[in-house]
Amino acid sequence: MRKLYPLVLSFILTTITFSAYGQGATKYPLYEHFTNASCPPCAVQNPIFDALYSENENRVNHIAYHTSWPGRDPMYSANTTEQNEMVAFYGIRGVPSMIFNGSSIGGPANASQGQINAAASQTSPIKLTVRDNPNGMSRNVGVTIESVMAPPAGSYIIRVAVIESMIEYTSAPGTNGERDFPNVFRDMLTSTAGESITLLPQGGKVNLSYTYTPDPSWDMDNIYVIAYVQNTGTREILNSGASNVPTLEVTPTTATILKASAQNTFSIDMNETEADQMIQVTLDAKQPMDWTASFDIDGTTYQTTASFMSSAAAVKTLDLNVVPGSMVGVGEYKLTIEAVNSGAKDQEFEFVVISGVTDLIINIGDADAYENIFATGMQAAGNTTSASMGDAKLGEGITSNALDGVINLYINAGESADALTDGNVLALQTFLQNGGRLFIAGQDVGYGAMSSGSASSTSMVQGFFTTVLKAQFISDGNNQNLLLTPFTSDALYGNLSAGGIVQTHGNNFTPDEIGPATIGVRPIFTYNANRSKTAGIRTETSAYKAVVIGVGMEMLQDVSLAYQILKISHDWFYDGISTSVFDAAMEDLMEGSAYPQPASDIAYIPVTGDYQNLNIRLMDASGRLIREEAVPAGLSTFELQVQDLASGLYFYQLTDGERIGKAQKLMVE
């Protein structure tokens, strides 16, 4: 945002806690995954989902049903009837397929962090508690459905499934090479059609009981139970629960991202709902060197790790304290809460403190691997108030005013299709309308926002891409887009050299082809010097500026080109005179076109008005600079010598050394 705030220096105490979920219950989204050990596309897509799941296993639930086709799969053979019935229920016709909260999203590779963030940020009117306890040779399962809010009208069923969290083979059991299989479906304790239930009014509880006998082939250390409630009409899953969810309830109470200020006190409550158990808390801090962080439990301060006994029905309070030093930056903190030897999932909570930052780099997913390119670009621009953070807190940071000292955002999207999501576009729109500037680069930003094949492409995201960024998505591109070429007529980037594009992301090489969505938006880069294949645009309104580039900065073969692009964007964002004003000034200086057309010896270029330090640039039809000459001050007509040029089409334009005016045609004979 436009306003700059003075930097608050050392010894500011910031104490952080967790965001409240209000009256609703924590929402645990459910992925239902259809796969096969002999399916070649499964071997490609499943690892993509597995990596996403491993980063979010404490936030989502996952069931993998194995199908009868296309080949051999012992996990299908272990329970053919019920898995066939689930295939029929969802109408699965190909694998891999993924159902998210009751709706198809295509393949598992379409699952995304943005999707999880958006779903998990909601609350549910019901809470499911699942317990799986031994009873001799069998197991007793109890499911409690508590209406913490008034349930919506509708007809509902519950399904209760036995899951094996991981099955590992020493050699691939099928023909696609996969050997590790997470969250494999083993048995349905209800029927696959589900058990009809009536949800009670707010405050009511439904208690259900089931029994099963484990199969000898199961690894009981990996067995747990998932239950979920589904609307029979819409198939929407109201909520899910699992027996490996901790019994320790951690209650968020405040914001999770803060602009550093004095005497902020926040806390979290940890409530053990069942038996006494040992709890371990670990703090992982990523912060500037002169910042410090610690946490307090029951009046005792810990730096990194604490262990304590949590008593049933007893509430303990944890305070996370962050003391920024004099260094500008962002502190990112993760608290991991483990119920020792319980078999329950660890609970992880992340927090952010931001101090004195004006230029903020946002890393989408794993794109933090390329963060240094952006940081070096800021250094090239001479910026000393830049920093970076992950994308999870971006929306909250804007809406809570934690980022109200940030002027420019640089979204480092990498290969992610989740740079723009329902969870952040409204906040980004607010940021821009309040005077912010936005740079966003990545090979699937446009695809993720606009393609029907993308899980992130919603009407809200599409509207932001086309009406706020004023970009048009043309195609997902292909592996022939190998050269990033500037539009030589652009006043900002036109003087850059072309640069090669490399396959940084392996076989996933699809640099987006985009273009201006409205008149006045300027194309700034092409692919392969082909003006019909635009690679980047910039837009400017009375409120904001934005740059969208369809290729990640990490994909540029010459990293110095990435630094230059970032520096130019940074400088434009801070520039007091807009390029539209400059372009208009250049047009005013050029009273008319060069004459004669065609020219043979001298081309006369009319100029007028007051100017200093102007040059005229001459380029051939491909945009290659032939020469640049100074325009003497006060001259009304500039004489351009062309007798040494071959016949053909040329272009000329005025520049002040930093910006470049629109190109004009010149024919030479």
List the helices and strands and how they pair.
Blueprint: E1 14-16, E2 25-26, E3 30-35, H1 40-56, E4 61-66, H2 74-77, H3 80-90, E5 97-100, E6 103-104, H4 113-120, E7 123-124, E8 126-135, E9 138-147, E10 156-168, E11 180-188, E12 195-197, E13 205-212, E14 223-231, E15 237-242, E16 248-251, E17 257-259, E18 268-272, E19 277-286, E20 292-297, E21 300-302, E22 305-310, E23 315-323, E24 329-339, E25 347-355, E26 359-363, H5 371-380, E27 386-390, H6 394-399, E28 408-414, H7 425-433, E29 437-442, H8 445-450, H9 459-468, E30 471-475, E31 483-486, E32 499-500, E33 513-516, E34 522-527, E35 530-540, E36 545-549, H10 559-574, H11 579-589, E37 602-606, E38 614-620, E39 625-631, E40 637-641, E41 648-655, E42 664-668
Helix pairs in contact: 5-10
- Name the strands of the widest sheet in spatial order: 27-26-28-29-36-35-34-31-32
Average pLDDT confidence is 87
Instruction: Indicate the proportion of strand residues.
Output: 35-45%
Main β-sheet, in a few words?
9 strands, mixed
SSE class: alpha+beta
Separation of the first and last Cα atoms: 52 Å
What would you call the shape?
elongated
Residue stretches low in confidence (pLDDT < 50, at least 5 long) are 1-22
What helical percentage do the residues reach?
10-25%
Give a count of the beta strands, DSSP E runs of length 2 or more: 42
Rg result: 30 Å
Number of helices: 11
